[in-house]
Recover the amino acids of this structure.
């Protein structure tokens, strides 16, 4: 244990089920575990394990070419004229917003042959990381070791707000203080922000999401989960500081690759008790919610093809969550995995001077009802409608103007631009979709509140969930962006006089929601932050800082090798080809969700069938990595990460590389499709030129 | 109040939303409420309200022509040679069992042109009621008024077992003691039992379930939810004591009609507290379970068309339950409905000498965890696989042989034949379906057990739900009927030595399940029976016996009128035509679930479009009435009940005829389809002859 350089076993040796236990955090990083912040890159590991020199130039170039999609994904610049690639499933909300009943971009795909044909996304913000600065001491300033957690949290919040405000004033950048190591470290991330993002190319959903929910989180896989945008600034294509030249060659088995992206959340440093709580309460709650919504969306979609078009994106999103939660839940039900977690923790606790932080975590998480109320009322599980979100923003902005005691971190000055982009987004909101959505979520609220229905009643007004949903949607004018602007300009007092049903709901539930949030902050979140900070310090004392922090939707570097695996005694190949794609469609009689789009049917004889379409590697990824460029050692983009296989779901809690793999679109298949299937010659020429000029010696 | 003959207001007058409160049980039956046992028919009501003489001959003929489908539906003889009609959705399990990958009877439908082509259902039992006898005093013999509920229940169970056994010995019939008025009355129902039931005709699911889940429980509706069997005895078609001649004319608006069938369960006599508990706990539990299973079934179906064929029937069944629970939940969330229930109860309690029974109900239902454990472990929500059911039957039969202290009512002598038909049914069981089903249900078990996972662990064996499901399904040989016979012949001791994984599971969970059952019986069911018996007696004291008992899946007569209604200011017509059916397909671009079967496409120009296809009436029905013949005053079959509209869902708790309607296939549309679409001339000739010979004066 605590050996730093004992990773030789992970290369070349056949892994058994037992070897997974070597990848635990109490030892230094072995195998290919780790999502590394760009200011603490895994230089030593790469040098020792792969004899690769991860130099600063390579890192800077990757950092400046990577972008974060504010709707939850990753991407990267791929040309000097601002082309950006990401996953189709990150672009899909935009595609849906740009669609009309007459022109369904999700179904048909899109190609802009000239810059004037590019379509501006109504609601996208891209962030490109410029710098990272350790601000731990500023954030902790004024906090003493035995301070009441509530008071410490207040001071911390105040410090963070101040740091962000000053940094933004100074640089003009978007500046976010990021909490690392469960509150043991705080880093200031400064981003260049882009909001003029235009759609250049998207394939049909039929190929992007080939195999649908059935294939999601599965491998072998054949699909083309990609889309291309162009970023503008001041009306002109942006010239990024760097970009990823696309590789026309692709990868070989055993090759070292890197994933550069924004993993959302991992929970690997959480205590055993908290992981158990996640299994026993949080995941079952989330599964119940996901199923309730998915079910309602499906029923809405069944009623007509236009309904299906309107709700398609919500269905995909909730099905994806449900499948991910299922995989996590399955993993955490396994005694073998829970035992490993327990063993890791026991070792750490044996060396610790006090058991109090672990006990404090246990008592903080033992607040199911507090957690649930927070999810339902403050996190909006009871009313996840964009109409309600807009109403709440309008109400809380008016409150913040009215009285600083109402201030909430998400309404701080540095967040207002992004917030207003949300509120005034011209993306269409469909009344019938919102009725279906609210009908389902209000029913879920009632079902969860059970006998303790006082709060649910104040939302339902004594009506059935569906009747209340109808009343709310028919009683609001928030569909109209001008009306939103008018309401957002009112004072809190004037807002209270509005007869808009959604504004009235937001006002009515605000005290319940704030109470739910404040109790959750006090009883759960603040003590957890305090305790995890102490546990992290203990871990540093025992292990140093070799273990990267849990993912926080900030830029990270992962590495791994392109590698097949064994399942049920069968070798699962490291890649699939365009020929495999056609084969699977044939095998399913070309029936949905395995139906070829027309464009692919027509190109069947011209597409070169042995070109790689999808490949896998051992690199450590998680949700949020969707759309991450996958690079070879030369920094060329060889793939576009879009998924993990089912064995990778438990990676939220424990890294495994026995069978767990992340899955990427292979660039050769993408380029062949642009050429032969989409005849996107202009786009292809731009990518070729970018690649040629970059790889010049 | 307590007026028996004040029902004139319900005819001819426009009903308002308020008038629903007149249909409450504290007054005598008004409107068209009531599912009447055949030994207490609504003669007076019909004479007074409709001037119709409900004579004994009419009643006897209807009783002997009606049949109960043991899988949860109703039906009726329609020819002197044993033809029986029911709903397609009651026949669908049989259709699924008779299907193969090469010949999917659900998708394609079926027609036997000769008797030799008829297909024997592997797993159907039909019951035809012969007599009803009041055995209340025998059941209550030995029970004193202040006896411990547990002891009273034991005595009652013993008496019932004895009565059933003796009656079966004497008559050779299937004899069931039925609990009425929440235990205030017990009647002995004796049935002729038929097990040789052969499929004659079924339409394609595309027309039987046209509109799918989207149209289920909705109106206006166009579909043909019907199927026809022939009953055999000793290898020959049965000659029923009577049958329903089919009407070729159909119904007119305002016409009096009767529904003869087996309504499953209503809850109209339950206390306010229990209905509230149903809303707060039971329905949310059932919704969560239904969604979990529906979700898993959908994912299984998505993977291939053969998967979809195998699981289609389960999907339809669970979607139907989920939609019904949703309707009930929506209804009970309405303060207006709950207030009505409270008002009714308050009136009854004001006149009562003691409040104790109501208090006892409240304390009995306040046992959520007991109720949930009973559902999960004893009612098999944790393992709803037919493989487990077979394993449990085998284990419990061996226990019953071994020691009478293990006796459970469902393993009594009079039940053994039906039980063995279940265990040794040759209906196919698909390993992949069972893995999907058990994977989902075991996950639901774990999710529900939450932190209190001791029992879940003993089922899961420390594996993930999906791994455990795989282990169980791959470790059992119960797919093989011969192996089931072998295991069923073993003693309990020998059974314990079996290495069959499903038998082992049944043995392992038996103590948990019996404990869950026994605690539930003691704490919930027995006190409820006791209390409801007291409440029922109080009600009799105040109101007499004019109010029919809650439904119990026994033969009942309902009546009502064919009647349109108003919704959202629009008149909803009392019937739809075959032309409307084609119109709806066209309106949905003939896309699923509104796609015409080929046979209907090809017949489009020849079908007479103004013939009625579906109609509605105010008669009082509930689940279990599916497949009930709908009769005119002459006893001719004018329709086949198959559904309620959404406003009828709350009828489980409160009868309403403002907008609530039951929905029936109209016989003229059915006969036109047999003639023109299916060219079923032999079948049509038999029905015509039956109709002609019966309606002879």
């Amino acid at each position: 244990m605590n050996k730093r350089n004992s990773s030789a076993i992970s290369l070349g040796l056949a892994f058994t089920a037992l070897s997974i236990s070597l990848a635990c955090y109490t030892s230094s990083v072995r195998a290919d575990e780790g999502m590394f912040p760009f200011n603490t890159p895994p230089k030593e590991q790469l040098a020792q394990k792969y004899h690769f020199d991860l130099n600063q130039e390579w890192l800077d170039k990757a950092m400046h070419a990577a972008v974060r999609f504010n709707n939850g994904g990753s991407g990267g610049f791929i040309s000097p004229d601002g082309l950006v690639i990401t996953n189709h499933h990150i672009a899909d909300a935009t595609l849906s917003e740009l669609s009309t009943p007459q022109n369904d971009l999700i179904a048909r795909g899109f190609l802009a042959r000239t810059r004037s044909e590019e379509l501006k996304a109504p609601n996208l913000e891209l962030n490109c990381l410029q710098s990272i600065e350790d601000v731990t001491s500023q954030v902790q300033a004024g906090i003493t070791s035995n301070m009441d957690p509530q008071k410490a949290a207040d001071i911390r919040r105040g410090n963070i707000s101040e740091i962000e405000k000053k940094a933004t004033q100074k640089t003009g950048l978007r500046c976010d203080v990021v909490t690392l190591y469960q509150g043991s470290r705080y880093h200031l991330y400064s981003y260049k922000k882009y909001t003029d993002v235009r759609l250049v190319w998207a394939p049909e959903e039929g190929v992007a999401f080939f195999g649908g929910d059935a294939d999601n989180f599965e491998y072998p896989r054949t699909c083309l989960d990609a889309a291309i945008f162009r970023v503008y600034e001041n009306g002109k294509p942006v010239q990024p500081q760097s970009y990823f030249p696309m590789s026309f060659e692709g990868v070989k088995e055993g090759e070292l690759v890197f994933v550069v992206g924004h993993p959302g959340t991992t929970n690997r440093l959480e205590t055993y008790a908290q992981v158990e709580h996640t299994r026993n309460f949080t995941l079952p709650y989330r599964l119940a919610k996901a199923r309730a919504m998915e079910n309602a969306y499906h029923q809405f979609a069944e009623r007509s093809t236009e309904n299906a078009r309107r709700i398609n994106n919500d269905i995909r999103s909730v099905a994806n969550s449900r499948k991910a939660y299922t995989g996590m839940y399955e993993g955490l039900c396994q005694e073998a995995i829970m035992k490993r977690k327990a063993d890791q923790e026991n070792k750490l606790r044996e060396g610790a001077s006090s058991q109090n932080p672990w006990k404090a975590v246990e008592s903080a998480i033992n607040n199911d009802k507090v957690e649930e109320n927070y999810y339902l009322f403050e996190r909006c599980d009871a009313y996840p409608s964009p109409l309600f979100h807009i109403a709440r923003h309008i109400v809380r902005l008016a409150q913040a103007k009215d009285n600083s005691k109402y201030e909430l971190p998400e309404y701080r000055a540095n967040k207002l631009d992004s917030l207003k982009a949300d509120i005034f987004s011209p993306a269409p909101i469909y009344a019938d979709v919102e009725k279906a959505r609210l009908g389902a979520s209000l029913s879920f609220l009632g079902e969860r509140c059970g006998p303790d229905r006082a709060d649910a009643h104040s939302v339902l007004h004594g009506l059935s969930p569906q009747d209340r949903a109808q009343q709310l949607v028919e009683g609001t004018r928030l569909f109209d962006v001008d009306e939103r602007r008018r309401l957002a300009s009112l004072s809190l007092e004037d807002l209270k006089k509005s007869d808009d049903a959604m504004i009235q709901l937001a006002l009515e539930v605000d005290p319940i929601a704030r109470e739910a949030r404040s109790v959750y902050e006090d009883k759960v979140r603040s003590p957890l932050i305090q305790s995890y900070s102490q546990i992290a310090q203990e871990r540093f004392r025992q292990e140093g800082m070799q273990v990267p922090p849990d993912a926080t939707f900030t830029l990270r570097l992962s590495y791994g090798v392109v590698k097949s695996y064994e399942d049920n005694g069968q070798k699962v190949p490291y890649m699939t080809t365009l020929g495999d794609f056609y084969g699977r469609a044939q095998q399913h009689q070309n029936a949905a969700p395995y139906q070829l789009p027309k464009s692919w049917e027509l190109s069947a004889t011209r597409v070169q069938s042995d070109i790689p379409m999808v490949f896998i590697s051992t690199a450590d990824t998680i949700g949020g990595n969707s759309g991450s460029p996958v690079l070879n050692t030369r920094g060329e983009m060889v793939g576009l990460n879009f998924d993990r296989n089912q064995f990778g779901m438990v990676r939220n809690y424990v890294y495994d590389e026995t069978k767990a793999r992340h899955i990427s679109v292979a660039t050769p298949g993408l380029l062949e499709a642009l050429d032969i299937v989409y005849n996107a010659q202009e786009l292809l020429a731009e990518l070729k030129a970018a690649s040629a000029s970059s790889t010049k010696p």
User: Anything to note?
Assistant: Residues 1-29 of chain A have pLDDT under 50 and may be disordered. The radius of gyration of chain A is 25 Å.
